[in-house]
Every structure is written in C-alpha cells, then in structure tokens.
TrEMBL record:
Domain XPG-I intervals: 136-214
GO molecular function: 5'-flap endonuclease activity
Ranges for domain XPG N-terminal: 3-83
Source superkingdom: Eukaryota
Gene3D superfamilies referenced in this protein's UniProt entry, alphabetically: 5'-nuclease
Keyword field: Mitochondrion, Phosphoprotein
InterPro entries the UniProt entry points to: PIN-like_dom_sf (IPR029060), XPG-I_dom (IPR006086), XPG/Rad2 (IPR006084), XPG_DNA_repair_N (IPR006085)
Keyword Transmembrane set for record: no
Keyword check for Secreted: no
The name this protein goes by in its record: XPG-I domain-containing protein
SUPFAM superfamilies for this protein: PIN domain-like
Native species: Zooxanthella nutricula
Length: 226
C-alpha cells in the first residue's frame, strides 16, 4: 500500500497489547480473516462454510495474547449517493454471471470479488449474535463504526483501536491496521507521522482523504466523470 511504500506503517510486539482493551471494527476484522474470503458466497446467497470455527480460532488468539476485544458493528449508514457507484457494482455482477455462463470461472470470480467485496448483512448478523453468545462485548454504533471507535478512544474506554487507516480522519492518534498472531506482531499507523511525512495540517489531511475516498467515505464522484 502507499502507506507501506512511504514508510508510515510501524510494527510493534503483540506483548505490548497484553492486558489491553482493544476497540475493534468488527467488519474490518472479519475481512482480515483469510479463511472467510469467498467471493462466490455473497453472490449465491450463502455464507462461507465453517465460519464459526474460523472466527473462534481468532477469538482464542485474542485470549491467548491477553487482549480483550470490544467489537463495534456499524449502525445505520447511508448508501451510495451517486448513480456511478450503483451502476459500477451492477455492471460487475452482470459481467460475473456472463463469465460464469461461459464457463470462465476464474474471470467470474474476479468480478464477484469486486462487486461483493463487503461482508454482507446476514453474515454480520450471524457473527454479532455468535460473539454475544460467547460472552464477548459487542456494540452496534448508531451510524459509522469509525466515529464510535474514535469516541471510545478519546474517552479512554479502549487502550487502542483496530481498524482501517481511515480511522485517522476521526482524530484517532494511532490505529492498529493488522495483527499477525502467529508472528506475535501488529502493524500500526500514527497520525502525527502521516502529517509530518506529507507536510500538511490535520485539516488538509481530512479534506484530501474525503475527496480521495476512504473506507468510511467513498471517492467524491465528480472527480471520476472523465
């Protein structure tokens, strides 16, 4: 990624998070679990097989490392406000089914992966209730997860947050963006490092990211009209 190429991704020892309460963007966390990535599942109306087993392995890894996760799920979020976003996804789905009908499974998989890259609502619902049943603390934000996690961080309710780099837009000083349990390490980015590297103010950073697009805010559509 550009952050890695710019030397803005730092690595830390997982031991430094032992005993910490970690605010987790639940959907971002689910996307990070490689075993759950099945581009055909959403398109065919199903869910990845063995999901709870894969999730439980990740939960056990948190427990083994002494990290207490607080899972935050998205609430009401606005859909795409520009027809460009909707038409692009529809086009990809149509192309995927066309490829599948021709027997071109590899090409179909690529298109399905693009059009259904988000964890679907049913899947999230199952995971939310699974986590609650296992006694994990789960919260559904009123709107975006990012704002809720930023609030928890500012109030000291969590020691750190785990989610996409876009959390920096909410004023979070540092964000854990990847956890490697096998290597006992984690990757993180710091807002101050980003601002210093790019020599911009925080306001300029927010403006630039809102135009370019993030996980929480799609690209300003009129920049892509060509």
């Amino acid at each position: 990624s550009h952050l890695q190429e710019s030397g803005l991704v730092h690595q830390g020892s997982l031991a430094s998070l032992k005993g910490a309460r970690l605010g987790v963007d639940a959907v971002f966390w689910l996307r990070s679990i490689q075993a759950l990535k099945d581009p055909f599942a959403d398109a065919l109306g199903g869910i990845p097989p063995g999901i709870f087993g894969f999730v439980d392995k990740e939960l056990e890894a948190f427990r083994r490392n002494g990290i207490t996760p607080l899972f935050v799920f998205q609430g009401v979020a606005p859909g795409p406000q520009h027809s460009l976003f909707v038409s692009r996804m529809d086009d990809e789905v149509e192309k995927a089914w066309t490829y599948l009908a021709r027997g071109q499974k590899s090409e179909a998989q690529k298109c399905f992966a693009v059009s259904t890259s988000r964890i679907n609502g049913d899947f999230v619902y199952f995971i939310l209730h699974h986590l609650k049943a296992k006694g994990y603390e789960c919260i559904q934000a009123p709107y975006f997860v990012g704002a809720q996690l930023a609030h928890f961080a500012q109030q000291g309710a969590v020691a750190a947050v785990f989610g996409p780099p876009g959390l920096l837009l909410y004023g979070v000083k540092s964000v854990v963006i990847n956890i490697v349990f096998q290597g006992a390490t984690f990757d993180w980015v710091a807002l101050d490092s980003v601002l210093a590297k790019w020599q911009i103010t925080e306001d300029q950073f927010v403006d630039a990211c809102m135009l370019a697009g993030t996980e929480y805010c799609l690209t300003y559509p009129y920049l892509n009209l060509g």
